[in-house]
Amino acid sequence: xxxxxxxxxxxxxxxxxxxxxxxxxxxxxxxxxxxxxxxxxxxxxxxxxxxxxxxxxxxxxxxxxxxxxxxxxxxxxxxxxxxxxxxxxxxxxxxxxxxxxxxxxxxxxxxxxxxxxxxxxxxxxxxxxxxxxxxxxxxxxxxxxxxxxxxxxxxxxxxxxxxxxxxxxxxxxxxxxxxxxxxxxxxxxxxxxxxxxxxxxxxxxxxxxxxxxxxxxxxxxxxxxxxxxxxxxxxxxxxxxxxxxxxxxxxxxxxxxxxxxxxxxxxxxxxxxxxxxxxxxxxxxxxxxxxxxxxxxxxxxxxxxxxxxxxxxxxxxxxxxxxxxxxxxxxxxxxxxx
Length: 338
Prior knowledge:
Layout: H1 9-16, H2 24-33, H3 37-53, E1 57-58, H4 62-69, H5 73-85, E2 89-92, E3 108-111, H6 115-121, H7 175-184, H8 187-198, H9 214-229, H10 254-267, H11 273-285, H12 294-306
Antiparallel strand pairs: 1-3, 2-3
C-alpha cells in the first residue's frame, strides 16, 4: 500500500500523532556507551522537555518520569546517577518548596553534551540544505483573520471569548514567559482555567477587565483545545484481570502465628490484642487479604493497625475460631465401666 494512502494506519500515525526525533550522532554515541535502556529513556524524556522549553532545562518530578518511562522510582534514581557520571545531565537542587516547606521542590535538570561526544561531532555528516529557499517577497498563503475574531469591547459579563491563537504564541512558551503569563492572569481566571482543563472544555470565561493580551488568551484557548482532543479512554473499556484467589484454604503456621501475635501485642493494648489477632488471622486466611501473598497480607494488616485504620473485617463470622488444622473425627471407644 502506498504511503500516500489515507487508509494506511502507518501513514495516519505519522501524520496525526506526536513522534520524537533523536539526533543520530548522539543516539549512536549513547549506544556505544552501553547505557541501560531505562537511563536512555530518562535522558530522551528530559531532552524533549528541554527542547520544548527552549533552554534545555526541565522540571519533571520523579513520579512523572517513572510513569512516562514505565519504570519504578528506584530505577529513575539510578538512571540519574549514571547520566550524571557520564556528563549527560546536570541537576540543581532548589531546596524546599516555597509553597510547602515540608516538601522538597522539583529539581531542575539540564541535558548536556559530554566533551568526548563533541570531539566526534565534527566528523558526523550534515543534512543537505534545501535547493530552493522560499523568498521573503512571495505572497503569503495564510488566510486573513476574520473580523469577528478581533476583540470587540465587552459590556458586563459576556460569554466565552472564542479567538484564533496568534501565530506568535502557537509554539511552546518558556518557563519565564509562562510564569509572566500567569502573573498577568487573575485568581478567578486561574480557577476557571483549571476547571476547564479538568472538565476537558475548549474555552472558559475571561474577566471583563483582564490583563491578558489577545496572544495570551489565544495561547490558553489553544492549550485547552489540545487537552480536550487528548481525551483518555473511558475506564469502562479497560479490561482488567480479576484478582486471582488462591485455591484451597490457607492456614498460618505456628511460627508465623507467633510472629504476628508478637507484633500485634506490641501495637495494641493487652485487652484488645486477642480480638485484633483473631480478626487479622481471619482476614489473612479467609477474608479480603487472602488474595495477596502471605507476607504481603500480613504487612498490610500490620500497617493498618499501626496507622489506626484497622476495622473489623466485613462478613467475618462472630463465632469464628482460628484452627491450625482441620479437626478429625474422634475414634470410637468402648466403655469399660459397664
